[in-house]
Each structure stands twice: as structure tokens, then as C-alpha cells.
Task: inverse folding
């Protein structure tokens, strides 16, 4: 028993040291960012990337590469473009389905912002938008796997929001929100996506998520429309009562 306890204690200490090392590097990156020192911040995030690659820590790796894209873009647009190419290479070599979904969602966001103030992308605006669209939609190919994955296992990437608990703190609702916030998806595509995700939560018996998505659907349908006449005679009010 003592032997097992010693091994467990040693493992715990090793993990604690590992986490602290990441914390130290992220602290360096944050401090450099506050001081407007992108080269120093890039150096720290590059160290995180190398460490995460060696340890196969997907969440740390993806966060590091996202920020390397940001800091590299602050230094030179070409650096940001190279980082996106490396992220696409990482996606091509990723074998884990959840990992692929995370890379795709991240790349969707980068391509959607390619024509922003850093302008790292090509001058083909429609091409960038199409790539963003395709990455967002493909990130939600496997709803069930994302529904089983938990945000807590990817905390370097996410900060749990107030509504996370209603979705059992899964990754599905995070990537769903990311896609739904994109301007690259048409209204009809968002409706179809919402119904897919709603059907999943209904099948899981998640009443809170089902209620929230039904309410979201009604709000989207009523967007910009005012209620006329008596409230109790309004079809929208009747639908709300049925939820």
C-alpha cells in the first residue's frame, strides 16, 4: 500500500510541476503582451508550443498556436500566414476526432478574421469566407463525440460560461456557439444546425439544453418583429408557454 501511495504522490508532484511550468510561461506571455512586446510574447508561446508538442497536450498546443498567430501577426503578416499553414498541417496529422473539431473551429475563426486589421490572409475575401464556413461546419460533424467531451479537459482553451452547466459542460455547446456566431453561415444553415443540436440534446434527455435551444429558435424566428394586440392572443406567447 505504501508503495502505491508513494507512486501516486510522485505522479501528483510531477503533474503539479508540469502545470506550474505552463503557468510560468503563460505569465511571461501575458506580461509581455501588456507591455506591448510581441517578440517576447511570441518567444514564450513558442516554448509552450514546443512543450505541448512533446507532451501531446492538445489544448495547450492549440492555445499556443492561436496566440503565436496573434503575436506573429503583430510583428509581420507573413508570420501569421505561416502559423495558419502550420495549424492546417497539424489538423491534417490529427487522428483524434475531438482534436480535429477543435482545430477546425480555431481555423474557422482565423479565416473569418483574415481580412481584419492584421490582414494576414490572401486578398481573396470570398475564398477566406468560404474556408471559414467549411471549417465551422465540419467542426460539428460528430455531435455525439463532442457531447461526451468535457470543457474541463480543455481548460487552457476555454473559460466555462454561466450557461455551460445547462449543457453538462460539454464541448458541443461551445463549438455550436462558435459556429452560430459566424457571419459565414446562412440563416437557413443555422436553423438546420440548431435542429441537429436540439435533436441530440433531446435524445440525451437534457431538458435544460432543450429548453434553451427551443427558446433560441423562437427568438430567432421573432427577431425584429413586435407583438401586436393582446399578449395572450399572440402565437409567440403560446409557444413560450408550451416550452
Result:
Amino acid at each position: 500500500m505504501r508503495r502505491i501511495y508513494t507512486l501516486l504522490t510522485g505522479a501528483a508532484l510531477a503533474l503539479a510541476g508540469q502545470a506550474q511550468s505552463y503557468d510560468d510561461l503563460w505569465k511571461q506571455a501575458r506580461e509581455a503582451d501588456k507591455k506591448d512586446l510581441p517578440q517576447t510574447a511570441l518567444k514564450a508561446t513558442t516554448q509552450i508550443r514546443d512543450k505541448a508538442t512533446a507532451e501531446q497536450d492538445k489544448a495547450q498546443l492549440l492555445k499556443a498556436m492561436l496566440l503565436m498567430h496573434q503575436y506573429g501577426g503583430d510583428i509581420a503578416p507573413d508570420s501569421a500566414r505561416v502559423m495558419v499553414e502550420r495549424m492546417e498541417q497539424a489538423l491534417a496529422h490529427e487522428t483524434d476526432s475531438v482534436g480535429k473539431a477543435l482545430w477546425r473551429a480555431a481555423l474557422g475563426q482565423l479565416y473569418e478574421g483574415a481580412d481584419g486589421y492584421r490582414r494576414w490572409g490572401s486578398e481573396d475575401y470570398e475564398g477566406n469566407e468560404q474556408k471559414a464556413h467549411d471549417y465551422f461546419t465540419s467542426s460539428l460533424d460528430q455531435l455525439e463525440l463532442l457531447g461526451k467531451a468535457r470543457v474541463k479537459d480543455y481548460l487552457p482553451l476555454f473559460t466555462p460560461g454561466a450557461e455551460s452547466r445547462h449543457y453538462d459542460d460539454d464541448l458541443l455547446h461551445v463549438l455550436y456557439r462558435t459556429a452560430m456566431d459566424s457571419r459565414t453561415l446562412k440563416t437557413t444553415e443555422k436553423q438546420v444546425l440548431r435542429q441537429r443540436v436540439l435533436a441530440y440534446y433531446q435524445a440525451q434527455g437534457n431538458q435544460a439544453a432543450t429548453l434553451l435551444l427551443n427558446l433560441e429558435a423562437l427568438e430567432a424566428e421573432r427577431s425584429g418583429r413586435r407583438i401586436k394586440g393582446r399578449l395572450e392572443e399572440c402565437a409567440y406567447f403560446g409557444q413560450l408557454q408550451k416550452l
Notes: DSSP finds eleven helices and no strands in the chain. The two ends are 54 Å apart (CA to CA).
